[in-house]
Amino acid sequence: MITSEVRRVIEQVSRDRGVDKQVLIKTLEDALEFAVRKKFGTGLDIEVRYNEEVGEIEVFQFRDVVEEVTEPDLEIDFEESRKLDPECELGDSIGTKMDATTFGRIAAQSAKQIIIQKMKDAERDVVYESFINRKGETINGIVQRIHRGDIIVNLGRTEAVLPAREKIAKETYRRGDRIRAYILDVLQDSRGPQIVLSRRHPQFLISLFSTEVPEISEGIVNIMAAAREPGNRAKIAVTSNDSDIDPVGACVGMKGTRVQSVVHELKGERIDIIPWRSDPAKFVCNALSPAEISRVVVDEANRLMEVIVPDEYLSVAIGKRGQNVRLASKLTGWNINVKSETAYSDAMQSGYGSLMGLPGVGDSTADVLYEQGFYSIEELAKASVEELIQIKGISEKKAQILLESAMQAVEEKEEGNGTTGEEDDGMTGEEDDGTTGEEDDGMTGEEDNGMTGEEDNGTTGEEDDGTTGEEDDGTKKEEDNCESMADQGSTEDATDEVC
């Protein structure tokens, strides 16, 4: 290693592996110093330097100048030191260059092993530093091999792994196939950098659109939210910073070319592109497209929206196996409970009747409570005296009586049917009208009416251009017609909105 070839090796490795030249030099110096100390002992005062002029690594042994030598490895006679440096004095430390041949084969081999290991470590650090800043990007690679369901991807200078859990279910790959994926994470461990890829992450969908749609990369159009059921269906919400540019149309492209490129990359995943709205109720209306929305009841405290749709749109709003409402919930960040107009009307009438059944509650009191958003005794039982006394005509004493009566009625109702009031009024409404409607009427209705309705209204518009077609007039219509109309007497956390 201590030859004029060292310079050539350092330059070549630095160029081919991308490792900084000074890092290589320091690695070589440390490795050789370790090998020398291993052979001659750790007590020696050794210094290793790289001589760039001749391209060699030189090893110097430093000894103290003394009159009488007692430790030859650490001391040098004054007269002998004068031969090396005429100006040296007693107590000085003088260095002598060691003969490379004295290192021996074992020392040279040790130095070689350390150099190789440190070179690998340096290369790993370079790879890690180059990829840690690319986390969140989309990258292309070649399938190298498949190990226990995980796909090992060759990225050129290093490898990455696409875990089985991050693959789209329908996809199959063979060695040599090209693959595009999202850099999910970059980890550093003893084996080197571990680059984890994903094709299921919602950000992968966003990244693909950023590549295909120049307006997104230029910052004119923004993707505000994305939700996926990978390989099956997805929704994205978009907005534009330029009033002259339609964000939905920009993402669809001429004759659907832009969105079709994304659909093709995701192996046929259907993509709904909807306008984003800052108003949560309007946003939910858009997200449930292509269903028409009659009314939205907003419960901000529980981040819940009860969405009422015409009976014929129930299966469309819920979607096949609840897919449409699930994606809408993920996209908007709100819990969504879909009901038909008939079921909602029945529930309201039942709730009004239950209020009328409370002691001391007549038509006028029931009307006031109903206007304030207390549609059932269960909702009234959850209120507080402070809330009720804010209602005109209800004193503190009457509020306490109402609460006690409502809570007692709820307890009796629970004892009578063995369920909680929440289940009776909340989830049951969804099960009786929402989920059950999908099973009894939804699946058939979806096939005969629901899915066909989607085809007519745009859900299968991706057969033509990969979108649900709401960019044409479906979602746009809902966007224009979805106007907030808070009831005058609504509570702070329950608001009626009509779309």
Descriptors:
499 residues; 4-stranded mixed β-sheet; alpha+beta; GMP Synthetase, Chain A, domain 3; OB fold (Dihydrolipoamide Acetyltransferase, E2P); N Utilization Substance Protein A, Chain:P, domain 4; elongated; 5-stranded mixed β-barrel
Q: Care to describe what's here?
A:
The chain is elongated and about 120 Å long. 45% of the residues lie in helices and 22% in strands. A five-stranded mixed beta barrel has the order 5-6-7-9-8. Strands 1, 2, 3 and 4 form a four-stranded mixed beta sheet that branches. It has a four-stranded mixed beta sheet with strand order 15-14-13-16. It starts with a helix and ends with a strand. Mean pLDDT is 78; it is low at 419-493. By secondary structure, it is an alpha+beta fold. A hairpin with a 4-residue loop joins strand 13 and strand 14 (304-309). The relative contact order is 0.08. It has four domains: 5-130, NusA, N-terminal domain (N Utilization Substance Protein A, Chain:P, domain 4), CATH 3.30.1480; 134-198, OB fold (Dihydrolipoamide Acetyltransferase, E2P) (Beta Barrel), CATH 2.40.50; 201-276, K homology (KH) domain (GMP Synthetase, Chain A, domain 3, 2-Layer Sandwich); 279-499, no CATH class. The chain contains 18 helices and 16 strands.
